[in-house]
Write a structure and sequence with these properties.
Chain lengths: 120, 109
């Protein structure tokens, strides 16, 4: 059974960088579309981006200039960096496994989510 | 980019059938996936590829997709089905492939 677990600071100051890590167990990080998705309080889901096959990435155009997703295959982890954060980046951040069923992708396993608050 | 439209809320009595819709331009030509999210919990995949159910999801959950509307149907609704439901498609031909609907709050009366 696949398990995903987010980790990282729950409080980030404005203009600084939000950094989160997702540890994956039960599957290899070298396959699938490993994704970050966020949910502002009381709002819907917003896709941030993904990394697939350990090297290729794709990001939400609205966040692209501030986002980096990377992978550490030795630790079976992938990470999110979001720089120049503002209060609008306050959200629950989820990591999820995207399964390719060509030509579509769906998210069949999710982490429990971690709340990140941007505040001074 | 593709825009998916869901009604903000749907209400249904226990034992009845609930239908949650997801509207989008020619959505019938795409594969639609559905997620259930209960308060304080992560989303759970309940339908993928329009009508397939992951293991562990009750047969009461079904999906269909045609034209400009995809529908999640929940038969014999139970109190435990009360949750937010999100549809999702994947547009591989764009640089913003992943799109979620705005979500529908299902209330069991």
């Amino acid at each position: 059974q696949v398990q995903l677990q987010e980790s990282g600071p729950g409080l980030v100051k404005p203009s600084e960088t939000l950094s989160l890590t997702c540890t994956v167990s039960g599957d290899s990080i070298s396959s699938h579309y490993w994704s970050w998705i966020r949910q502002p309080p009381g709002k819907g889901l917003e896709w941030i981006g993904y990394i697939y096959y350990s090297e290729s990435t794709n990001y939400n155009p609205s966040l692209k200039s501030r986002v980096t997703i990377s992978v550490d295959t030795s630790k079976n982890q992938f990470s999110l960096n979001l720089n120049s954060v503002t209060a609008a980046d306050t959200a629950v951040y989820y990591c999820a496994r995207g399964v390719l069923a060509f030509p579509t992708v769906y998210f069949d396993d999710w982490g429990q989510g971690t709340l990140v608050t941007v505040s001074s | 980019s593709n825009v998916l439209t869901q009604p903000p809320s749907v209400s249904v009595a226990p034992g009845k059938t609930a239908r949650v819709t997801c509207g989008g331009n020619d959505i019938g030509s795409k594969s639609v996936h559905w997620y259930q999210q209960k308060p304080g919990q992560a989303p759970v995949l309940v339908i993928y590829n329009d009508s397939d159910r992951p293991s562990g999801i009750p047969e009461r959950f079904s999906g269909s997709n045609s034209g400009n509307t995809a529908t999640l149907t929940i038969s014999r609704v139970e109190a435990g089905d009360e949750a937010d439901y999100y549809c999702q498609v994947w547009e591989s031909t764009t640089d913003h492939p992943e799109v979620f609907g705005g979500g529908t709050k299902l209330t069991v009366l």
